[in-house]
């Protein structure tokens, strides 16, 4: 029985009891629900010899238990620490989950599976090189102990990526030097079996492999795409792990162009078809290329250039995919004068890219790197970006309508004309409504703004969602619950210290009033993070200085 069911039964029991005993108000009926709110902020680390790291990782299990993972200095090196919050009990005691005491622990990741097993993955120096480590938290057992999950002792690990499938299997892919060049390695964790043996998943011995990306499909098959040097140029390569054979295949070069491959991106649909998009140097400019792996054919196709603007370089591609397997790519491309925003769409039915098109009309300044792309359940796509008008950076949006098979037209979605917009986030709910949240300068401070696209209505009016006018906001994070409500947290200066704030968008009501959710007044807050459990309870963590060190704090919204 979950917490929601328990709450309903308790409320019903209370109503029946009050009805039997009579009501002092004479109105009868049950008690109103207890309003949800933030609790009191609490320091959740006990290491008082050094600062916590720049960010933390959070996961929540099916019982609402939250695990926090972070780096913290002991005065000499950065160690890896964890703490757990249990509903009705509170936070436990922080514990160090690694035992390698030669140098810093970095590059960490945190996963949780359906059995509530938590996995931490990180790299750590042994005074000579960087190794790859993991530890597991087993319910009823605790942390089982750090284990090294690679065995190449000639060079350090780098460019670590990892994915988890629906069954809790984890695959980690990384680049590792053999003393001569960087090779691409992988290892796999299976619940009940543990980690396998690390294996090299590429055979190109002419140059280094680096910058890998990995995706996992609904069946647990994994595709890794990376760039690799052949002594003359860098190429795009791929390999696939098959859940059926429990093995990696043979690495395959997925392009044949002579230019250098840069920044490959990869995305997968439900059945497991994979689309890879990358930037490639085709002198004098970089073009945008793509290739697709077909599940039915069990092979990669032929690489294709998916843009036609030959006046300047294409770069900074962003991908998204709808439930039907249609892929949208947007990117920035120079026309010899300025950077424009372009898009192309791959149709699963036509098995073809529709053709590149410019999706913005602002001709006064450059499109910036700040781009977001969201897709709703019907396949409608919304692109959000910042673009200069010759004086400042504005926030724009355009929507691809799947029924009309066309982009609707670029629209500026903010009205603050005193300063630049900065990196925006875009959140889409189950109904297709979109909320965009961004920092924007008023000429003095950076404020926090929001706008919302409502299905059937369109974009609303941008509104400032914080009221602290003494200093700038930074480091905002946001999360969506199952009812379409949004919680956003951020750090903001009051002229003396930066404090930690929160605001909530309630579906059907709108934004509330911003509130400070911490009370430590000795130093600045930084680098917040959020996680939500299955009952929509939210945990926020952040680092905060006490006048000497940065500590890790937490607050719970429930």
Fold blueprint:
Layout: H1 3-21, E1 42-43, E2 52-60, E3 66-73, E4 78-86, E5 90-91, E6 95-96, E7 105-112, E8 118-125, E9 130-138, E10 142-143, E11 147-148, E12 157-164, E13 170-177, E14 182-190, E15 194-195, E16 199-200, E17 209-216, E18 222-229, E19 234-242, E20 247-248, E21 252-253, E22 261-268, E23 274-282, E24 285-294, E25 299-300, E26 304-305, E27 314-321, E28 327-334, E29 339-347, E30 352-353, E31 357-358, E32 367-375, E33 381-388, E34 393-401, E35 406-407, E36 411-412, E37 425-428, E38 434-441, E39 446-454, E40 458-459, E41 463-464, E42 473-480, E43 486-493, E44 498-506, E45 510-511, E46 515-516, E47 525-532, E48 538-545, E49 550-557
Structure report:
- It is a single chain.
- The protein is mostly beta strands and 558 residues long.
- The protein contains 1 helix and 49 strands.
- Strands 2, 3, 4, 5 and 6 form a 5-stranded antiparallel β-sheet that branches. Strands 7, 8, 9, 10 and 11 form a 5-stranded antiparallel β-sheet that branches.
- It is globular and about 60 Å long.
- The N terminus is likely disordered.
